[in-house]
Amino acid sequence: MPERTYILAPSLLSADFANLGSEVDRVIKSGADWLHFDVMDNHYVPNLTIGPLVCEAIRPHTKAPIDVHLMVEPVDALVPMFAKAGADIITFHPEASRHVDRTLQLIRDHGCQAGLVFNPASSLAWMDHVMDRLDLIMLMSVNPGFGGQSFIPSTLPKAREARARLDAYERESGRRIRLEIDGGVKPGNIAEIAAAGVDTFVAGSAVFGAGKDTDPNRYDSVIASLREALQGVA
Ligand code: DX5
Ligand code: ZN
């Protein structure tokens, strides 16, 4: 297998919403690769966050890919809206879509990369018949809805299983699908998660909770610690 490149995707959910533009600028300047954008509808999950309007507002702040995580039901109507608002990647929970294959196709038809999100109790079997339509899959290592929860340890064997499936697919198709993880990722556990085969890491509270409010470079050291922990992972 060719070498893996690691992606860090800070979740804006834990950012200072009164200063979102400068939060985006700072986290990207500190070396983040993607911006993770959590969309919650108070229906699929018991919380309410941000929509396409906010995505459009932050788009001019960065060229970094915006990774839109839809925790909404139904899904389809929001896909064109987020594509228009500048999303690069759109993921959704299969349980929230009536027609998973159609939703994946819809995302790609709108020029974005498409992915499925697996809750802690969701079966990986959701990916079986749609591999060709996937650019990434994301495993939830907490139940969706809130930042700042603890990493659920049973996600590690699940990540190893997902990695084996994605590697088998890559051997047969030559196409690589990213494996992302979301929830409770910190400098202290990221190496273990990477060793289980994950290549893309969402971190909300660990990044945006770091440093002193007044320090303009407050995210530098946490991003550096996350990267440092990834060095030397086999
Ligand atoms: C939870 C969200 C996550 C969340 C992660 O439903 O999907 O992206 O922001 O936050 P932390 O890193 O604090 O667990
Ligand atoms: Zn998320």
> How many E strands?
8
Number of helices: 8
CATH architecture: Alpha-Beta Barrel
- State Rg: 17 Å
The general outline is: globular
Please tell me the total number of domains: 1
What do these coordinates show?
The chain contains eight helices and eight strands. The protein is globular. The protein has 234 residues and is an alpha/beta fold. It has helices at 20-29, 52-58, 78-84, 100-109, 155-173, 190-195, 205-208, 220-230, and strands at residues 7-10, 35-40, 66-71, 89-92, 113-118, 136-140, 178-182, 200-203. It has a single domain (7-230), classed as Aldolase class I (TIM Barrel, Alpha-Beta Barrel). The model has no long low-confidence stretch (mean pLDDT 96). An eight-stranded parallel beta sheet has the order 1-8-7-6-5-4-3-2. D-xylitol-5-phosphate is lined by residues 11, 13-14, 36, 38, 69, 142, 144-149, 182-185, 202-206.
How are the SSEs ordered, and which strands pair?
Blueprint: E1 7-10, H1 20-29, E2 35-40, H2 52-58, E3 66-71, H3 78-84, E4 89-92, H4 100-109, E5 113-118, E6 136-140, H5 155-173, E7 178-182, H6 190-195, E8 200-203, H7 205-208, H8 220-230
Parallel strand pairs: 1-8, 2-3, 3-4, 4-5, 5-6, 6-7, 7-8
This protein binds D-xylitol-5-phosphate and zinc ion (ZN).
